[in-house]
Structure formats: C-alpha cells, structure tokens
Amino acid sequence: MKRIFYIAKYEMKMLFKTKEVLFWNIAFPIILMLLFTAIFGGGNTIVINVGIYDQDNTQISNTIIDIFNQTNVTNIVLIQNNETLYQKLSQHELDAYIIIPKGLGRNVTSGYQAILNIYIDNSDPNIADISKGIIKSIIDGFNNKTRGIYEKFIEGVGNFNKTMIEHMRAYAETLKPLFKPVKGTEKVEYKEFILTGIIGYGFLFSSMVTATASIVNERKEGTLKRLLLTPLKPIEILVGKTFSALFNTLIYTFLVLAIGIPLLQPKIHLNIPDLIIIVVLGSLSGIVIGLLISAIFRTTEGAQGFAIIIGIFLQWFIGIWFPLEMLPSYLRSLSNYIPMTYALNVVREILLYGDSIIMHIQETIYLTLFVIILYGIGGIILSRLLKTIEV
Amino acid sequence: MKALEVINVSKSYNGSKVLDNVTLSIDEGEIFGLLGPNGAGKTTLIEIVLGFRRRDSGTIKIFGREISSREFNKKIIGYVPQEHLLYDNLSGLDNLRYFAGLYGVKTSEFKKRLNKIINFLGIDENILKKDVSKLSGGQRRRVALATSLIHDPKIMIMDEPTTGLDPNVRREFWKLIMSLNEEGKTIILTTHYMEEADELCSRIAIIDNGKILSIGTPEELKKKYGGEESLILRIKTRYLDNAMELLSNYQPEKVSEDEIKLSGLNEEYIPKIRNLLENKGIWVDKFEVRKPSLDDVFINLTGRRLISE
C-alpha cells in the first residue's frame, strides 16, 4: 500500500513538473471551453452583405435602403452600376443583392404592389438560407408597418368603397420579395460543402501535424542522429520531409474524392490540375507551420501535442465544418490571417463552382508568398537547429 | 598512418567535466578499445568525434586532417550506436536501401555490397524482409551493423556494440568485428566488458571520470597494473581454517567460504601445496591459476571494480 502511495505521489510530482502536461490537462480544456462558448454561445450576430442597386432613386427607394441600413444584421453595399455588381458577385463579396427597379416608387405611391427582385448567392447553403430569412423578415417588417397605417386608416375613416379598399390592401403589402438565385451560384448542399471541407482538413492534419511528427519522431527514436551521420544536409532533410508530407496530403485528397464522390454523389467540377496546385499550396502552408513547431519545441511530446492542438483549433477557423460567416466577426477576422482559409476557399471555388485558379490569383499569390517567406524563415531556423542539435 | 587523433579534448556539462584533456591516437588497421564504466565519458568522446556534440577545447584529426567542432567525414566513418537506430516499421532491406541511398550508393553497387555484407554478417535474406520491430536483439544489431557498412567506411566506430546481447551472440559478434578488421577496417569500440576488450582490442585506453588513465595493449596494461599471478585453492569449508594455518608461510588470503588465494604463486607450486595439505588429510577440490585481468588493471588504477556481467 505504501509503495502504491509513493508511486502515486511521485508520478503526480513528475506530471506537474512537466509544463506541457499542465497545459494539455488544464489550460487546454479551459481554452476549448471558452472557444466553443464564443463560437456557439448566444449573443452572436450574423451579418450578411447585401448589395442594393437602386435604379429608382426615389424617396420610397431611399426609405427601403434606410430600413436595411437600420438593422444590425445586414451590411449594405450600395451598387452604382452593373460592372460593380458583377465584380462583387464574382468575388463572392455579396451574400445577396436587391435590385430596386426604376418606377418602384411610382408604383408604390400609386397604390400598387411593387415586386422586389432579390438575388441570393446560393454558393453557401447555410448563408443562403440565413440571408433569405433576414431579408424576408426586414421586408415583412416594412410591410407590417404599412399594414398598421392601412388598418388605422380603415378604422378612422370607415365607409370606403370596394375599389379604394383594394387599393389600400395593395399598399399594405407594398413590397413583395421575389427570391432568385444569383446566376452561376448553384445550390450547394452540405454534403458538397463538407466534402471540400474535408480536403482542407488535410492541410492541418495530413500536412501540418505530419510534418511536425516526422521531425519530432526522428528525434525521439534517435533516427535523426542516424540521418545526421549520413552526408545529408539539413536542408535536404527538410525538403525530404516536406515532400513526404505533401504527397501524404495529395494522396489523402484523392482518397477523399475517390471515396466521397461515389458515396455522396456531390455536384462538383473536377478540375484536377488547378485542384492539385491549390492543394499543394495549402499543404505547404500547413507543412511549414508544422516544421516550425518542431523546431520551436524542445520536447517531442510538446511539439507533437502542440501541432495537434493547433490543428484542432484551426479546423474551426478555416471553414472546414461550417461557413466562416457563422463565426462572430472578431473570430472571422482571425480566419483571414490563416493561409489555409484561403486555400480551402479556393478549393471550394474550384470544385463547387468550376472556377479556375487564375480567377483566384490574389489568394494564390498570397499563399505562394506565405509559403516562400515561412520556408525561408523556417529553413534557416531548422537548418541551424539540425546543425547544432545535440541529439 | 593515424586513423584518428584526439588531442587535449575537453567537454563540460553544467560545470562538471565529462572529458578532461583527453589525448589518444589510433593507428589505421587497429581495433582500439575505450574501456570504462558507464558514465566514464566513452560515448561523449565518440559523439564529439562524430560531430554530435561540441567540444569545449582540443583538436581532432581524421587521417591527418583536422576537423571542426561539428564536422566529420561521413563517408569515411561508419557508426554503430548503442541503440540500433533503425526504422522499426521498415524492413531490414528497406533500411539498408534507404541508408545506401542517403550515402549515394548506386543501385547496381548496392546489390553487390548487400550480397557481400549479408554473406559476411551471416544475415538470412528472409530476416531482411521482416520489419525491424519483429527482429530479435541480435538480428537488429546485425542489420544495424549492415547499415553502417553499406557505404564501405574506412573507420568503424562501435559504441558498446554487444551490450544487451546474450553471451553466445556476443561471441559471434566478436568474430564479425575481427573479420571486419581483417578486411582492413579500423575499429574503434567502447565497452565496459573487460573480456571483450581483452579478446578484441589491439590497444586499449582505460577511461574513468572523463580522464584517460592509461593506454596500451592488454598485455602491457596487465603487466604494468594487473599485479601478480595467484593460485586459488577450493577446499571444503570445514577444512578451510586448518588449511589457512598449514599454508601460513605463503601468506594465504581467504577469498570466500571455500576459497583461499595464494598471491605470487603459479602452477609450479601445485604439487608442493597438494602434498602439504593431503599429508594432513585435507583434500583440495580444485586448483586455479588466476592471471591478472583488465579488471585487476582497473582496480589498481581506480581503486574500484569495473562493473560488468
């Protein structure tokens, strides 16, 4: 019994002397708890980007714009011409757009019901539903107000003839929303969203975590020592490890598609060359982060644990499981700093909407620069580490 | 030609010296042993030569060429570490292929070398097909040795090459080491097995607490520091005290409950001692002439035994 007590006592002592263990056992669950509360807890407002192209430019059309502006769930982008509209649509900057046609104001003041064409970007099924709901409720609110005026008017004045009452009813349902999909944005189902998301998952786990593990396991098993005995240069070890993780991710990606396509039967555009380019960039972004982690941590357990946790964290921020628009704005801005977000976004654009990589040259350049800069930094750090390591 | 020269090399960790001004030189074609207990500094010295650890001071030359703190000629040296340092989830053959590739051995050349090595080391081809994790300790050691030989190095550094092997496998391994030496390779090995050092090494450096205490052939060391030969008598315990009294002129020393040691005597004295005791009805079960060993050398140099199996 006494021996068991001693084992327990000294095991705990050793356990609590290890900082990594303290972090994973205590700090991490707390951080995870806070994170989930932040993401899924109440009080979050989803803001959708609504473009309004006011071709009417009357007092009535301005009133409609004001109503949209007054809500805290829409970010109104005023569109001045067709070119701006197409540009913003092609860049998926708008979740929906409304065209206020010329003559709407005149129709309304003449007592006719006005149809409002609302175009919803269906590329993200969740956001499309949310956008539709938000816009509909705003228009309903507008209509309810006008219905109130109508009812008070009927009560106050009374004795209207039939034609006048019909006129007033039309006024009460002033705006009738007519939802249409934005041209080219086919309805994407969750299975398509998640299939592409799982490819992004590979950037984190098949790339980043694998890259970290490949270095730290070599250290742990002592085989790094054996490698350093060969004429290999540190940079060759790094490049070799990079390729290994990269191939791992490419194999993973094609396995996901090979299994996912027959099982889920998604509507996707298989543009393999462009997909490979963006997967390579996304994977390299993950690998270089993984290699840096392996260089920063002293213990193999610390490095591997950290890489896994970073992977678990980032999966919520790069849009694997749900659209980034569902994140609170302060967390959404964090996503913009993660290169894998861009890579996954382009993967989706290619597979779901048949885009080419040229159409996403900005993201591609950003990813390429990120990879080049971090490999430059990481290469120097890791080469030094491997040269000076006392294995 | 000197294969390796270590000149005034020192190394400290956290203020304590693990190597203190170590100087030694090893001739080409030698089997040179570094003999010392665990923690003596043998592995640190080897790792400094290999470039795994920085030296605080001193010079190292390989075939006359001075090497910097982090450098060594990777193609000249083959290293057999204490741990087998193979990829457990790869087969022995894949490990060999992998390391051959890293050393730049061409495929055609690899096949020739592989055949030569597996014949030389007596490795069954079927064993090479198995994952390293499924091999026995002796088999792993052979595969590890094979990976160290695949680039045909001139110098083989072996760090405790037979630690953990059973005595029979160890003896087989000694034969391999001697064969390698006969092939023209310079062998540097660290060991804490005296018998191993005695059997294999042409010269030995005795190292303790980071200092080289003495260097010489096993015979030179034993002659210089091993002390005298002695005669050991095994007698039944009940006669031991009488025997001690009868042998008092020879300054007997009770070694155990049934053993007496007579220092300075050799086999020539056996008939005389036997007569002396048998005349008084004391029968000697066994006579043994004990020659000075490297253990005696170590005791005389350090005042304590070199612990080994």
How would you sum up this structure, described in words?
The complex is a heterodimer of chains A (391) and B (309). Chain A folds into two domains: 48-181, abc type-2 transporter like domain (abc type-2 transporter like fold), CATH 3.40.1710; 188-388, no CATH class. In chain A, helix 3 (59-70) links the parallel strand 1 (48-54) and strand 2 (74-79). A five-stranded mixed beta sheet of chain A has the order 2-1-3-4-5. With 391 residues, chain A is an alpha/beta fold. In chain A, helix 8 (190-221) packs across helix 14 and helix 11 (272-296) runs parallel beside helix 15. Mean pLDDT of chain A is 77; it is low at 1-15. Chain A has helices at 2-17, 19-40, 59-70, 82-90, 104-109, 125-157, 162-172, 190-221, 223-228, 234-264, 272-296, 300-314, 329-335, 339-353, 361-388; strands at residues 48-54, 74-79, 96-100, 114-120, 175-181. With 309 residues, chain B is of the alpha/beta class. Chain B is 35% helix and 28% strand. Chain B contains eleven helices and 14 strands. Chain B has helices spanning 42-50, 92-102, 107-121, 125-129, 137-149, 167-182, 194-200, 218-225, 240-246, 270-278, 294-302; strands at residues 2-13, 16-27, 31-35, 57-62, 65-67, 77-80, 155-159, 186-191, 203-208, 211-216, 230-235, 253-256, 259-263, 284-290. In chain B, the strands form three sheets. Chain B has a six-stranded mixed beta sheet with strand order 6-7-8-3-9-10, sandwiched between helices. In chain B, strands 2-1-4-5 form a four-stranded antiparallel beta sheet, covered by helices on one side. In chain B, helix 3 (107-121) crosses helix 5. The longest helix of chain B is centred in the middle third of the chain and has 16 residues, at 167-182. Chain B is elongated. Chain B starts with a strand and ends in a 7-residue tail after the last helix. The chains are: A alpha/beta (391), B alpha/beta (309). The interface between A and B is medium-sized, with 15 and 21 residues.
